[in-house]
Amino acid sequence: MLPMDFGQADVPVACDTCAEGHTGVVYETIIGGRLQWVLDYECEGSPIEAFGWDRSPDEYRQAILDQSGTFRLDVPDAGGSRVAVLKALRDGGVAWVDVAGGLDALLDEGIVGTCAELSLLATRLESAGATVAVVRRADAAGG
Ligand SMILES: [Zn+2]
Fold it and tell me: End-to-end CA distance of the chain, in Å?
């Protein structure tokens, strides 16, 4: 069963077992406070599943962004503690967030990612006392 709320994407899968490629479905979910990505496909009638943690491989992540939408995390109020917010951003499981540009830039511009990534990050930031909102970006990339 797929958690539709975080989005999913059809992706081409190169197959080691047979000569043909396959079309797989990749999706992201949140388990135990970590992001898990899952790839499901079928080869010669047998279901095959691959998965990993914290950040989807780039081609899968991009497919999810393209097919399920890009989301943005707005932080209208960082709360009382910048230290707590920074810690939430740097904690394991959200390693894809680039904090090198500085906290203010992140808070001003919002943080862009997949729905699952930002939902996970929103939970962490709320625990740190920030006020956050995850919104779907209306504008398509390059459009
Ligand atoms: Zn195959």
Answer: 33
